[in-house]
Specification:
Layout lengths: L12 H15 L15 H12 L10 E6 L2 H22 L2 H8 L9 H4 L2 E8 L1 E2 L6 E2 L3 H18 L3 E2 L8 H6 L6 E10 L23
Antiparallel strand pairs: 1-2, 2-6, 3-4, 5-6
Helix pairs in contact: 2-6
């Protein structure tokens, strides 16, 4: 493997404050969106977004992830149909009263039209082991690694001027079947990506205050 020298240029304290403040303010405007325009996204933008996610750290640099981009209308329709079947069961049978009460403020139900309306769906898969060679090799810290990569992905989507939703219909085994993924891959996140529909509404949310969230020792 070998090593090479780190490319690093130290910034002044003021530069770091300015950059971190600017980035914090950009990310504070990120919202989960369920109303998408059908306007196409440039392929290069999608590629750059995913390349950013691929730059995330992972256990032993195993990169235990796979990203599937779905733009085909027929495939999106299949995904929506399968997701809504699971969501119906969730809302009618699986969710507790407390859970449903917590969801009420978002005015959501089993219907998921955004899975067809968004111009692209990015499906993140976690790879429990590597079967790319002749031997089956273990991956390490798979959940943590894929979670970090997904954070990079969501951040890159927002930075590019697009909106998204972290959708997690449960269970998500239908994604592995529809997209014909190998047995070492399990769906981790289903993320519609695109531009918001004009006049899109989002809930008025309140985030916890810094002093109630952070402890410095």
């Amino acid at each position: 493997m070998g090593f090479h020298r780190l490319k690093y240029k130290k910034k002044t304290s003021q530069d770091m404050i300015d950059l971190s403040t600017q980035f914090m303010n950009v990310m504070a405007t990120r919202r989960s969106v369920r109303e998408f325009s059908d306007e196409d996204i440039p392929d290069k933008v999608l590629e750059n977004i995913i390349r950013t996610a691929m730059s995330a750290p992972s256990g032993a640099n195993k990169e235990p992830w796979q990203f599937s981009v779905v733009k085909d209308k027929t495939v999106k329709k299949k995904i929506r149909k399968a997701a809504e079947a699971e969501e119906k069961k969730f809302y009618k049978e699986r969710a507790t009263e407390e859970w449903l009460k917590d969801l009420n403020k978002f005015e959501t139900d089993w219907r998921k039209p955004f899975l067809e309306e968004a111009p692209a769906l990015i499906v993140v898969f976690r790879q429990s082991y590597d079967n790319s060679g002749s031997l089956k090799r273990k991956n390490y810290y798979v959940g943590e690694s894929v979670g970090i990569a997904s954070g990079f992905l969501i951040t890159a989507i927002h930075n590019a001027g697009l909106v998204s939703l972290t959708h997690t219909p449960s269970p998500m085994g239908f994604l592995e079947k529809i997209l014909k993924r190998p047995t070492n891959e399990k769906a981790f996140l289903l993320i519609p990506v695109g531009y918001p529909e004009p006049n899109t509404q989002v809930p008025m949310l309140k985030k916890r205050r810094y002093k109630n969230t952070v402890r410095i020792y």
